[in-house]
Amino acid sequence: MLPELPPLPALTRAEGDLIDRYLEAADLLGRINPARDGDTYGGLRAAQALVRKAAELRDALALMHQRGETELHGDTLARALRVLDGARRTARVALPSDGVG
Q1: Which letter, b or e, does each residue of 36-48 get, where b requires 16 or more Cβ atoms within 10 Å of its Cβ?
Q2: Is residue 26 within 8 Å of 89, Cβ to Cβ?
Q3: Which residues of the chain fall below pLDDT 70?
């Protein structure tokens, strides 16, 4: 059996959209990361999709601002990112370790 995940913290719909769009953009950036193996066509497709995802991320933030949600609650949003496997998903964006320590 898979371990039970902790529940997501209470988020507004706009905060949920922000988290979702952020992770989707991070997934695409991970596919584009030139320090990782892959093919140029896959990177090109991810870069094309990233343009659309960046606009959706901007729109999520704009909606939050328009609704008066002017602060990002980092602790709450970080908990949501952890529940949604954000550490693994964003790690692909970083430069891989070269083994030199």
Answers
A1: eeeeeeebeebee
A2: yes
A3: 2, 99-101
